[in-house]
Amino acid sequence: MLLQFSTNSFLHFPSYQGKLPEKAVKKVLQMLKKSKMDLPEFLVGKEHHEEKMEELLDLDSDSLRIVGIHGMGCIGKIVIAKVIYNKLSEWFDFCCFLENIRENSESPYNVVKLQSQLIFDLAIGSFSDIVHVEDGSRKIKNVVEGKRVLIVLDDVDEKSQFDMFVGDSKWFGLGSRIIVTTRNKVVLNILEAIYNKNNLVDVCRSYEPPLMNPNHSLQLFCYHAFRQPFPLKDYALDAGYIASTAAGLSLALKSIGLSLLGNTDKASWKQTLKDLNKFPNKVVLETLRRSIKVLENQPEHCIFLDTVYLFIGEDYAVPFYMWEDCELGSINAIKANVLRSLIKIEDDNCLWIYDQLRDVGRQIFREENKLLREQSRLWRCEEAVSIFNNHSVRLLDSNSSSILA
To answer: Residue 135 and residue 71: Cα distance in Å, rounded?
Structure first.
């Protein structure tokens, strides 16, 4: 949007109309600050997410609403938040979208930068510099007070990170909406316990996006690999197989599709499928690695690896007693994995993990323990047979890093 003002634009207003130009300028500045977020070139299946989010946001209500989007990495949480932000921003007086809060929260300097961005987006006119994080929280309170705002906090991992930007529900004007994306549902559970306690209607609500269905997965893959929503005739079978390896994760579908864009070598496509059946896509590996890394040196990490290697599809009671005997605090450790969307417990009490997360977990473990005989867990039959045929085996106590000698 390009706006051009004459130098004399406001010179001929009668004195009783002196505030009109000022109001006009404020309105223009307010509109300019409502910039849209950049979205992926191709969006597939967004209608379902829009419908669900609008239902949870309950835009007809004048009460505050906080809606959390939670789930594993690569599932498309931030894209959903951006779609909703772009669609609904005009409903609000002021809007702000803060990205990568978990990563930026490691540095007070970066937190202050985000707080400054929030104040800039929600304020008209100048404001004093933020001295430190607590000072930023106070100034945010003063800026948002009484305003109908839409705020998106992306990738919040702890309640304290939420508090640095949204300290108290009483700060905000009627009809304000706050959207939080997170991999850690503990954050949303805490917010629900605080905000829903004395309200007839739930102020804080949560949404876990489902994986993309096979049809949408193939369509998104084809958009990136062929620049159209369906495969070329000679690639239909390979495209279907390759898209299925992404297991419904939008980031994986995009990354794999782009890696094959313009590639007409059928042998290369088959090799890609073969590689993906053995090793996860590099972009997905790095994204999901961050989800798993937070568990390092904790009992939750051991339980995650045991499940990845040994107990997918098993009734969780089977490993539960083993973990308990190993003093891994199994109940809380299992729950921590579930709340971080790393492990799921199905209705039949069986343990389940997303395919891509399973593959990434196995790959990370293999990278850290390159020699087979030093690995504490084996999942490929041929590797296990090789170890048993060529090495003696001994059992070690639960604190040992390896069961092989």
So the answer is: 32
Task: Compute the chain's Rg from CA coordinates.
Answer: 26
Residue at 288: amino acid letter: L
* Type of residue at 310: L
Q: Using alpha carbons only, what angle is made at residue 157 by residues 156 and 159, rounded to the nearest 5 degrees?
A: 85
CA–CA separation, 226 vs 258, rounded Å?
9
Q: pTM, whole model, 2 decimals?
A: 0.81
Q: How confident is the model at residue 12 (pLDDT cuts 50, 70, 90)?
A: very low
Write the Ramachandran bin of 173: left for phi over 0, alpha for psi from -120 to 50, otherwise beta.
beta
Sheet holding 149-153, edge to edge: 94-98, 149-153, 177-182, 65-70, 204-207
Q: Check if the beta carbon of residue 247 is closer than 8 Å to that of residue 281.
A: no
CA–CA separation, 147 and 118 (whole Å)? 13
Q: 3-class DSSP state for residue 1?
A: coil
Q: Rounded to whole angstroms, how far apart are CA atoms 129 and 139?
A: 10
Q: What six digits make up the tokens of 351? A: 């343990």
Q: Could you tell me the two tokens for 386?
A: 């090789």
Which token pair is 174?
A: 């009627």
Segment 306-317, tens digit of pLDDT:
898 889 999 988
pLDDT-derived band at 394 (thresholds 50, 70, 90) equals: low
Helical (H) or strand (E) element with 389: helix 381-390
Give the closest residue to 394 by CA, choosing from 385, 403, 382, 384. 403
Q: How confident is the model at residue 10 (pLDDT cuts 50, 70, 90)?
A: very low
Residue 82 CB partners (closer than 8 Å, separation 6+) = 37, 38, 39, 97, 152
175 Cβ contact partners less than 8 Å away, ≥ 6 residues apart? 59, 61, 62, 63, 64, 92, 148
User: For the segment 109-142, what is each residue's pLDDT rounded down to a tens digit?
Assistant: 999 999 999 999 988 766 778 989 999 999 999 9
Contact 143, 96 (CB under 8 A): no
Q: Which helix (H) or strand (E) holds 236?
A: helix 236-245
Residue 172 DSSP code: B
pLDDT at 328: 79
Q: Above 50 in pLDDT, residue 269?
A: yes
